[in-house]
Amino acid sequence: xxxxxxxxDLFGTLIGxxxxxxxxxxxxxxxxxxxxxxxxxxRLWRQTLEMRIxxxxxxxxxxxxxxxxxxxxRPGEAAIAQAVDIRMRQMRRxxxxxxxxxxxxxxxxxxxFKVGLISNASIEIPILWGxxxxxxxxxxxxxxSRARMRKPEVRIYALGCERLGARPDECLYVGxxxxxxxxxxxxxGLRPVLFRSSGAKSSGRSHEEAREWKGKTIADLAQxxxxxxxxx
Length: 232
Fold this sequence. Notes:
Layout: E1 5-8, H1 18-22, H2 25-34, H3 38-47, H4 49-53, H5 60-70, H6 77-94, H7 101-110, E2 114-119, H8 124-128, E3 140-143, H9 144-147, H10 154-164, E4 171-175, H11 181-187, E5 191-195, H12 208-212, E6 217-218, H13 223-229
Parallel strand pairs: 1-2, 1-4, 2-3, 4-5, 5-6
Helix pairs in contact: 2-3, 2-6, 5-6
């Protein structure tokens, strides 16, 4: 079956991975804005990651208030607004395209392929999405915090295919292998392709799949076009 559709991962694929792009500094800055001790704030903020990913917080304010309440404090509205601004400015920086990403997406669109996105992403990403260079080039993005489900659940891939009007066997799925996303894509019926950029660090449990991957691998996003050109 010829592929008509390409669905991409976001972090570590179209953009850099979150850990290297964001770093801890902005979390310390949020703590300073809220006038709370940085270490317990940073620890509690990290502990809410999974809650952010599955959409338990539909605003950054709600996430901040939740963490502060666990610290038995309630900053004023101005302090919360300042912390939100710090977070959103950092996330805008994180959303900078990887070199070659926009060119690859633009060529896929020019060649009339359907282009999708499935991302395990907290609520800031869909809020900011319309501001990015990606927005006009991706037909249907699916964000875990909006969909209230996450990779590698089969149903989030099914949702991505459904929104694009494509069958799973018509779709390539391209990602860096975080959170076993490639196995999830394969289980859902898509053809998974590992994107491993030069210098990428596949350490930690979340990247276990990338370290052990034996399937199709590319090192440059433009190679997606070659895969499609070489298909029967």
